[in-house]
Structure formats: structure tokens, C-alpha cells
Write a structure and sequence with these properties.
303 residues, alpha+beta, three-stranded antiparallel β-sheet, 11 helices, 12% strand, elongated, binds iron/sulfur cluster
């Protein structure tokens, strides 16, 4: 057991919790009628995974862009880097928009962080290793009386009870992308506007990503087998989940050059030639600009 760095915690807590594994036994129960009912949903700071967004937008019958507009706020997952998404509270307040007196109105599709509470999932990464390992922290907040309830269980049992296993599996590809991006550090530099937009669309705006994958320009460049393409372009949960997983592969290819999606060679070569031409053009313009500045300096000194 060890203590995590507070900046790596997925929540804001004045208490730095102890890091534990899934075999750890905890004492906890949340139940209707408890004196603190809804206290946790009255002051939210909940990060959403791409799969959380997918489940919620389906539950509400909204397109992903509409969901983002009404229920989400972006934040920086890392300085000047890629974006994360949080649940947007009620206007002018801090309570969750889904909180009702009888409890959570989207309970069957509630986000990963809500399922886990009061446990927090911490994604860990060993140096030079991009596969995350799961570790947990128990968060004890004063308002939460569930810790005084007479029930004990392991974190693994709690994960099963809260149906969190599927959420973890579906969120894993996204967590690995974020970890890999963070670990590439400032040496790689600030990601371009285009790559940040691609990350946002692919992870959080799945309906727009579907249209992109179904578009002519995408299919001119990427050679996706027809059966795979058909399986992920429908609007069932299964299709959208497959599309999300494909999206993680797509981002690894675009951002980190891990080629797992075949390219149409002719189109790829044309694209590479265009990129080379663009880079050469930028170099020519920079050289011309420098020459103009030098001329200007020479003229100023001659005066
Ligand atoms: S989604 Fe449900 S469980 Fe999560 S904060 Fe909102 S009301 Fe509470
Ligand atoms: S016991 Fe904790 S999790 Fe349950 S309603 Fe109270 S504050 Fe929320």
C-alpha cells in the first residue's frame, strides 16, 4: 500500500486517501432513508468517460452533441493538452441535474465515478509501460454516513455489486490514451488544434465520429473491412461500443503512429506528399519572412 500523489486523484478531496487493491475489505452501505440521502449528489465534481457519455446520451435519447451541450462541461485533463468532460450541475448551483428526491434519475446508466463512490479508481502506470494497472482509494467524506453502516465487503465485491466491471473495460482504452499522452510529456510539445479536436470528437461526440467514419474522405484513406464497418455504424449499444473501441485505435494511430487500421496505399502516399509539400511551403515562408526582417534591419541601420 502507498499514498497516491494528490494531483493524480480523479476527484477533489481535502483528505489524501490510502491506495489499496481490490482485495481490501471496506465498511460501507448506501441505502434509501439514510440521513445523508442525496448529499453526495448535491455538490458534484464528476468526470465522465467516453462510455459514460455514450450510456447517458442513449438513456436520454439525445445526440452526443446535444448531450454535451446540456449536461457537460469540458476541462483540461493536462495543461494545454487534451480535454476531459465533467457533468454540468444545475444552473447556478452545484447539484447534479439528474438528482431527484427519490434518488438518481439515470441510476441504471449512472457514470463510472458514481458507481464507484466512495471508492475511487486510480489508473496507475509503471515507468515505460503503457498498460495501466488498477488501484483504488477509499474516500471518506464527513457528510457520507454510509461508512457507519454495519456491512463489510471487499472492493472487488463492491465493483460487482455496482456493475462497474463493464464500465471499466469500456473506459480502459481511453484511460490508456490519456496516460500515454500525459507520459509523452512536454518534450512532444503541445498537441495541435487538429489533434485535440480529433480526440474530443472521437472520445466524446460519438455521433459526429460515426458520420466521420462513414464519410468519403475517411474511406478514401482508411481501408476498413466492410463487415467491421457495418458492425460499428449502426445505432445499437453494441455498435456504438464497437465504434468507441475503433475510435481508440484510430486515435493511437493518428496521435502515436501505431498503425492498426490499414490504409489505401495510393491515398496514403498522396496524403504524405501533401504533408511534405505543406512543410516545405511553411519552411519557404519562414525563410522569406526572415529575409524580409533582415532587409528591414539593414535599411534601418543604413538610415
Ligand atoms: S448521475 Fe446520479 S448518482 Fe451521479 S451525481 Fe448525478 S444523481 Fe448522483
Ligand atoms: S451514504 Fe454516502 S453515497 Fe449514500 S447517499 Fe449518503 S452521502 Fe451519498
Amino acid at each position: 500500500m502507498s499514498t497516491p500523489d494528490p494531483k493524480d486523484l480523479p476527484f477533489n478531496s481535502p483528505v489524501v486517501p490510502e491506495m489499496v487493491d481490490g482485495a481490501k475489505t471496506i465498511r460501507f452501505r448506501c441505502r434509501k432513508g439514510i440521513d445523508c440521502w442525496n448529499a453526495c449528489c448535491s455538490n458534484i465534481d464528476i468526470s465522465l468517460t467516453p462510455y459514460d457519455i455514450l450510456r447517458l446520451k442513449r438513456r436520454l435519447g439525445l445526440a452526443s452533441a446535444q448531450f454535451l451541450q446540456q449536461y457537460a462541461v469540458p476541462y483540461e485533463l493536462e495543461k494545454d493538452g487534451i480535454a476531459g468532460i465533467k457533468l454540468k450541475p444545475v444552473a447556478g448551483g452545484s447539484a447534479c441535474q439528474f438528482m431527484k428526491p427519490e434518488g438518481c434519475s439515470v441510476y441504471e446508466d449512472r457514470p463510472t465515478a458514481c458507481r464507484y463512490y466512495p471508492v475511487a479508481l486510480l489508473s496507475m502506470r509503471k515507468q515505460d509501460e503503457y498498460v495501466d494497472r488498477d488501484a483504488y482509494a477509499l474516500v471518506k467524506e464527513e457528510h457520507c454516513l454510509g461508512h457507519d453502516e454495519p456491512r463489510t465487503l471487499t472492493i472487488e465485491d463492491y465493483r460487482r455489486e455496482q456493475d462497474v466491471v463493464e464500465y471499466d473495460e469500456q473506459g480502459r482504452g481511453w484511460r490508456q490514451l490519456v496516460l500515454k499522452k500525459k507520459s509523452s510529456g512536454p518534450s512532444v510539445g503541445k498537441p495541435s488544434v487538429k489533434s485535440r479536436q480529433l480526440f474530443f470528437m472521437t472520445c466524446y461526440d460519438i455521433d459526429t465520429f460515426r458520420a466521420f467514419v462513414d464519410s468519403g474522405p475517411f474511406n478514401e484513406l482508411y481501408d476498413v473491412p466492410q463487415a467491421e464497418s457495418q458492425a460499428m455504424l449502426g445505432d445499437t449499444l453494441e455498435s456504438e461500443t464497437a465504434l468507441l473501441q475503433f475510435g481508440y485505435r484510430f486515435l493511437r494511430q493518428v496521435l502515436f503512429g501505431e498503425e492498426t487500421i490499414a490504409l489505401h496505399q495510393e491515398a496514403a502516399e498522396k496524403r504524405r506528399a501533401q504533408s511534405r509539400e505543406k512543410a516545405q511551403q511553411a519552411e519557404r515562408e519562414a525563410a522569406e519572412q526572415m529575409a524580409r526582417e533582415e532587409d528591414f534591419r539593414d535599411e534601418s541601420f543604413d538610415d
